[in-house]
Amino acid sequence: MSATRTFHRSIHRRSASWLAAALLIGTWTGCLDPLRREQIDALGPEEASTPVGALHRAGQPCLLCHSEGGTSTPFTVAGTIYETPSARSPAAGVAVELRDSARRSYVAYSNCAGNFFVSPAEFQPVMPLWVSIRTRELAVVMESPMNKDGDCATCHAPSISSQSAGPVFLSAISDAGSSMMNSQCQGQKR
């Protein structure tokens, strides 16, 4: 074997080693996409009083971390529902009815933080996705379908702007419901 061929194989092995190391480091840091990493960092730190889990980061874009290539368990659809604009209290036990373009349906339920989420094993919608929310007393149908992905906070940011419809509220009426914060609530079907 010539010295040139040995040199090229050595470089190839080193390149493969560097690539493997870069992929491993990328996995440890959460993702290789710098834009996603920047968006996650912009969310700020976790709320100290809320442990990481089903109740954390209410109202924030869930699929930044909870998607394929993200840093946490993937979701296909996720969001947060509040009772009213004035109170901004979470709406627990709300049925979130999802219907995709393949005419398949799935119902998720909000937990005591107002959060709901759907795993890929439960439902993988074909976009666009139509959404409605309901309780025993109220029903709200979203005016337009979700087209991009299943992250409600993509369009429903914490405040209304030219790029956001604002948070999802069960009712614009102040006395809409009576949800109670309950640490046992995990969004199970009722």
What are the defining features of this structure?
190 residues; alpha+beta; four-stranded antiparallel sheet; three-stranded mixed sheet; disordered C terminus
Write the layout of secondary structure elements.
Blueprint: H1 3-29, H2 34-42, E1 77-82, E2 95-100, E3 105-109, E4 115-118, E5 129-134, E6 139-141, E7 168-169
Parallel strand pairs: 1-7
Antiparallel strand pairs: 1-4, 2-3, 2-5, 5-6
Helix content: 10-25%
Q: Can you summarize the main beta sheet?
A: 4 strands, antiparallel
Output the radius of gyration: 21 Å
Q: Pairing-aware structural class of the strands and helices?
A: alpha+beta
What is the β-strand count? 7
Strand order of the largest sheet: 3-2-5-6
H-E order: HHEEEEEEE
Taken as a percent bin, the fraction of beta residues is 15-25%
